[in-house]
Write a sequence for this structure.
């Protein structure tokens, strides 16, 4: 009996060693696969960068290698001469900054305000508003765009800044649900004592509640800003007279296709990617925490 | 409602004013850009704008066209087929990502670098990502893929016609979705795996459970709610995906009967009609919404049943 148990123990130990060896091998294979995949996500940008330093002729003859006589003429051209419908990269950049900053501030203010009062005040209609918001986010809207376009046209909001704010400044969405849940679990005691001291409701909201929800608000502000910055579809439909970088780049793509000036397009792409990468480097923690790291830490 | 506040009568009026001031713009915005616009879609769908006389007339033609096109022309059928493909592709993406996410969660070497790179497509605009994607495949632009094929001796005339062959163009869109989506989904699903209680994972380690069993019998059931949300998302994707089509193929190549594009999805079809025939676009959109609602409700029901069986 003793012998048998010993034997069984040894065998299970041997199995375990074999198993962990197998698992190590699997891990290495997965690591290689993921490395290849990660490489594929960055390699195109490598070619973008090296080809942006060539003139079109050199690029034709040597599409994959490093330049033998690198030039920054492409960049100079993009900065100084490139105009799409009379709009240069600088103006597109400015349009992007103004639109995304305005939209972010406006929509975050509305989101925070709505989430707060719906979480903290009981009044007639509170539950109704909340359920309508929840249900409306469940279904895809395939049909609403033609009517939206007609509305923007009829109200002369098409291609206006204020029109974009109203159209895209909606309060209800993922950030609303998060902040609603967050405000809900903040104890009201903080406010109560302030109220006894005579603070108004608005003061309590701004001075006490917003600072408490600071982390969530900052994270969503950063994520939203990036979302608005990168948005292509809405500005291309409703704000195309003032092209943002995303809209402008797709126009530059068409221009390069017709003029066969691809290396200039590469240069324009590199220029527009740089600010985004800087933004990512600075706010990496917040951007990843929102989705990846299992939620916002407060 | 823990921590919420029922105002005493003394403050009541002031507080109501505050509440409605805070809610006024959000609700107005919602009423106009969600409620009104969706109601107006119904109205538009029953209208026809007569350009010569500049008058709007009431009609059911737009819906009649939908059903006539559905049986007689390729465009709608192709778009529905492509949408189905895109949805299935997304479901496959979820499954593959869930498995890869497990290794990510088990701390695959290089995890911290992968984390930063996998998130890049969520940082850089879809306009740029689709542009570099096209660039890699385009023979005209001397992209990496055709150049590599040529280096391996494929003659220029035999290069795959990624953008003009219907099936290759379709696969381009599916490949793009997998390409940018896998990393993101690995991060999301890996993130939800990190929330599995640590004693569960410790127990499995002590018991010497194999990776295979741990993945399928512990980890996937534990994060099933997240996966089921992702699957319902796949259905949404199939009804709403169009940007990728718009930016990669523009719906092209043309169908043989000339009624539309071979790579168009439902949403692309509707959106591309807005400029030319707004009323018909609205009618088509409504028809597709009518199709999507029961599908999504059924899918949610199925997922609820599965979730209950798993004990959530």
């Amino acid at each position: 009996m003793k012998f048998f148990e010993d034997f069984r123990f040894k065998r299970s130990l041997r199995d375990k060693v074999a198993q962990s060896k197998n698992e190590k091998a699997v891990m290495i294979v997965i690591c290689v696969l993921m490395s290849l995949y990660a490489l594929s996500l960055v390699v195109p940008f490598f070619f973008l960068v090296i080809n942006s330093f060539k003139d079109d002729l050199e690029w034709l003859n040597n599409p994959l290698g490093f330049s033998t006589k690198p030039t920054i003429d492409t960049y100079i051209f993009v900065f100084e001469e490139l105009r799409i419908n009379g709009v240069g990269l600088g103006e597109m950049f400015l349009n992007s900054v103004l639109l995304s900053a305005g939209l972010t501030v406006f929509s975050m203010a509305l989101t925070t305000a709505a989430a707060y009062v719906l979480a903290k005040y009981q009044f007639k209609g509170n539950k109704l508003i909340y359920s309508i918001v929840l249900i409306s986010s469940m279904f895809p809207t395939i049909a609403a765009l033609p009517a939206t376009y007609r509305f923007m046209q009829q109200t002369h909001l098409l291609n206006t800044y204020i029109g974009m704010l109203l159209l895209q400044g909606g309060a209800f969405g993922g950030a609303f649900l998060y902040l609603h849940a967050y405000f809900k679990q903040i104890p009201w005691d903080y406010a109560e004592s302030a109220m006894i001291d005579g603070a108004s409701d608005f003061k309590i909201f701004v001075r006490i509640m917003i600072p408490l929800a600071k982390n969530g608000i900052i994270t969503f502000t950063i994520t939203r800003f990036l979302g608005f910055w990168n948005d292509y579809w809405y500005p291309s439909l409703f704000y195309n007279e003032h092209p943002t970088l995303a809209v402008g780049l797709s126009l530059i793509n068409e221009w390069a296709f017709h003029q066969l000036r691809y290396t200039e397009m590469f240069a324009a792409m590199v220029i527009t990617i740089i600010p985004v990468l800087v933004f990512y480097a600075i706010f990496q923690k917040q951007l990843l925490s929102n989705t990846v790291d299992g939620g916002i830490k407060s | 409602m823990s921590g919420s506040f029922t105002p005493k009568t003394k403050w009541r009026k002031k507080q109501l004013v505050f509440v409605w001031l805070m809610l006024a713009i959000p609700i107005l915005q919602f009423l106009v850009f969600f409620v009104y616009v969706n109601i107006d879609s119904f109205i538009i769908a029953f209208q026809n704008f007569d350009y010569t006389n500049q008058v709007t007339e009431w009609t059911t033609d737009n819906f009649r066209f939908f059903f006539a096109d559905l049986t007689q022309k390729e465009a709608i059928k192709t778009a529905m087929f492509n949408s189905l493909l895109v949805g299935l592709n997304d479901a496959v993406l979820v499954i593959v990502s869930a498995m890869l996410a497990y290794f990510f969660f088990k701390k695959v070497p290089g995890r911290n670098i992968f984390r930063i790179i996998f998130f890049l497509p969520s940082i850089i605009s879809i306009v740029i990502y689709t542009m570099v994607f096209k660039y890699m495949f385009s023979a005209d632009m001397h992209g990496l893929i055709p150049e590599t094929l040529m280096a391996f001796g494929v003659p220029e005339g035999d290069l795959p016609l990624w953008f003009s062959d219907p099936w290759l163009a379709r696969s381009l869109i599916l490949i793009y979705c997998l390409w940018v989506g896998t990393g993101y989904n690995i991060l999301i699903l890996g993130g939800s795996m990190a929330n599995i209680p640590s004693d569960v994972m410790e127990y499995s380690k002590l018991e010497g459970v194999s990776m295979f069993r741990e993945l399928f019998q512990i980890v996937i059931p534990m994060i099933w709610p997240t996966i089921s949300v992702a699957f319902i998302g796949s259905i949404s994707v199939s009804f709403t995906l169009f940007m990728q089509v718009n930016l990669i193929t523009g719906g092209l190549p043309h169908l043989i009967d000339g009624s539309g594009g071979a790579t168009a999805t439902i949403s692309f079809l509707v959106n591309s009609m807005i400029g030319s025939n707004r009323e018909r676009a609205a009618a088509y959109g409504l028809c597709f919404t009518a199709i999507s609602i029961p599908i999504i409700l059924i899918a949610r029901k199925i997922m609820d049943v599965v979730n209950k069986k798993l004990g959530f």
Summary: Chain A has two domains: 2-43, 90-291. The radius of gyration of chain A is 27 Å. Chain A has a mean pLDDT of 89.
